[in-house]
Amino acid sequence: MAGRTVAENRKARYNYFIHEEYEAGLMLLGTEVKSLREGRANIQESYASFENDGLYLVNAHIAEYGHGNRNNHDPLRPRQLLMHKKELSKIAAQIQRAGKTLIPLSVYFNDRGIAKVKVGLASGKKQHDKRATEKERDWNREKQRLMKDH
What we know:
Elements: E1 5-8, H1 12-15, E2 16-26, H2 30-37, E3 41-42, E4 47-51, E5 54-58, E6 61-62, E7 79-82, H3 85-98, E8 101-109, E9 115-124, H4 127-149
């Protein structure tokens, strides 16, 4: 189970310029951890925002645990992200000053089996930036084919 990626936001690098990446812990309920271990999570439409008392992961879907009882969790509830205060203040300043956003890139279990989220400090891409990224990716793929043939 160690080092296993549970969910990945593959569209994030296409839609955003990722400037910095941070690792954050997740404050989860027991049924959420069990559901994550089954690999039932989706972070495609989620983002992180500062609420009154901390940083929260909003709109991340962790499916209800199948064997849970009436105390099962709400799949879309906001979950607190755990980071050092110094990192939080640095991120808050970037969001306020530069108009950047904080998006989750992946949810995974670290070597000790603890659920972590890799979040990226990002700014949005325009349509022409997305086309340039796609063109570069196609060129790299074609270059690999040419090198393989020779």
